[in-house]
Write a structure and sequence with these properties.
The chain is of the alpha/beta class. Helix content is about 35%, strand content about 25%. The protein has 11 helices and 28 strands. The strands form 9 sheets. A 6-stranded mixed sheet has the order 5-2-1-11-24-23. Strand 14, helix 8 and strand 15 form a beta-alpha-beta unit.
Length: about 450
């Protein structure tokens, strides 16, 4: 090495700007990027970030995605990391580069050419996508709420259905204006309640052809014996009773075998006529990750990692969040694909990569289950907080649960945007609530 020359800073590349990936980029940017101790780069196929647990609100129109989204380029500038627009579709572990597919604009013209991005340390945080289990007709006739764009398309279909119902009358529109939601987990349950609330609000703006709740039929279907398997049975029963009280049809122990233009058909032979079908059951990592360049993956395309979050076959490649199969203690299931797990892994990995840059050892990941919260719009919120008391959990409902659900999003905003920007965002929410309609009408 020539006298006076300096070693180039380590290149840390994070693929995926979801909750965990963006938090990790912000923390590493502040600790390493600011001091030029490492070059931190975040890559995502979108230009903006929206907290994924909010997608059901975007779909119902009770949240304007543009009011809540964060600009990656702005966050990168403010937190000393780089942002690159692109979608990963390949990996060369020998050359230590990832491949990004060409990016096209809305007209199909090439905006960015195919790219190769070098790395020293790679963190794959691509999240998950809906798993339709190869059900006949699901890809063609069901909407997968994986992205803000998909949620916006769903909302447009709902508004268009309202306009048609208003034009032809409630009796003629009834069979066409039915939404079937496949999946009784948090996303499906929250979406069903949000849609019911949306319909009541639309009626106040003259976009409902009959009394609120009469021209929109909602059905939720799940193959499990009850809704919300991740919650205690008492809370599951409470939510089911609440939904049925709202007039939402609940079908459990029903496996969907076909989705068509006419609706949803179950293995039992039951047919639910529906013009709009949402698939919210099951998740998997992106298909291209399956055994990518020899990395070990499972049937859900998740990269199998050690407790340090390093992939089992390449110590320079880490995976976190929904796309990682991370072990817990012996005899326990894998770390569940939840936002709280991605948040905890981002915290751990930020500490580990900072330690690694300083020549220290990596830290093992230990998942702490803080429970689950499910929001039923303005109607109710229920949840289970783990580890709160000696017996292991405490059940919460009502306003306290609603406040805690709201605070989860604020914790994410604090991690990404800091205290001042989060306070300003909260103020903006109150101003928008007073200035704008209660629901997005276009």
């Amino acid at each position: 090495m020539l006298a006076g020359s300096q070693t180039a800073p380590q290149r840390i590349v994070i693929v995926g700007g979801g909750a965990g990936g963006l938090e990790l980029a912000v923390r590493l940017g502040k600790k390493l990027g600011k001091k030029k101790a490492a070059e931190v780069t975040l890559i995502d196929a979108a230009r903006t970030h929206l907290w994924k647990p909010l997608l059901h609100q975007v779909a119902a129109g009770t949240l304007d995605s543009h009011a809540d989204e964060l600009e990656y380029y702005a966050v990168a500038r403010n937190n000393h990391f780089k942002f690159r627009l692109g979608r990963m579709d390949g990996l060369d572990r020998t050359a230590k580069v990832i491949q990004l597919s060409a990016t096209v604009d809305e007209n199909g013209d090439e905006l960015l050419p195919r790219q190769a991005i070098p790395y020293d340390t790679l963190v794959i945080s691509l999240g998950s996508q809906t798993n339709d289990f190869n059900t006949a007709g699901a890809k063609e006739h069901a909407i997968m709420l994986d992205t803000p764009e998909a949620a916006e398309r769903f909302h447009q279909r709902i508004i268009n259905s309202c306009l048609r119902a208003q034009a032809v009358g409630a009796d003629a529109a009834l069979n066409r204006f039915t939404v079937a939601i496949i999946g009784g987990g948090a996303t499906g349950v929250e979406l069903s309640a949000e849609l019911h609330m949306m319909n009541r609000i639309l009626a106040t703006y003259g976009l409902s052809s009959a009394a609120a709740g009469q021209d929109l039929k909602i059905a939720i279907v799940d193959a499990a014996p009850r809704l919300l398997q991740m919650l205690p049975e008492r809370l599951s029963a409470s939510v089911t009773e609440e939904l049925r009280g709202l007039g939402i049809d609940v079908h459990v122990n029903e496996k969907v075998v076909e989705v068509s233009k006419e609706g949803v058909r179950m293995a039992s032979g039951t047919m639910i006529p529906a013009s709009i079908v949402v698939w919210a059951a099951g998740i998997k990592a992106p298909d291209f990750l399956n055994n990518i360049d020899g990395l070990e993956t499972n049937r859900s395309n998740q990269i199998i990692v050690e407790r340090t979050l390093q992939s089992t076959r390449d110590a320079s490649i880490f995976a976190m969040g929904d796309c990682a199969a991370c072990p817990q203690n012996e005899g326990q299931p894998l770390v569940p694909p939840r936002a709280q797990a991605a948040h905890q892994q981002a915290l751990l990995l930020a500490k580990s990569l900072i330690r690694q840059a300083r020549g220290k050892s990596l830290l093992p990941f230990h998942y702490h289950d803080h429970g689950s919260l499910v929001s039923l719009g303005n109607y109710s919120t229920v949840g289970s907080l783990m580890g709160a008391i000696a017996s292991g959990s405490v059940f919460i409902e009502g306003k306290i649960a609603k406040l805690m659900y709201w605070s989860l999003h604020k914790q994410h905003q604090l991690a990404v945007s800091g205290f001042i920007h989060t306070v300003l965002a909260v103020c903006a929410e109150f101003i928008d609530a007073a200035r704008n309609p209660r629901i997005k009408l276009h």
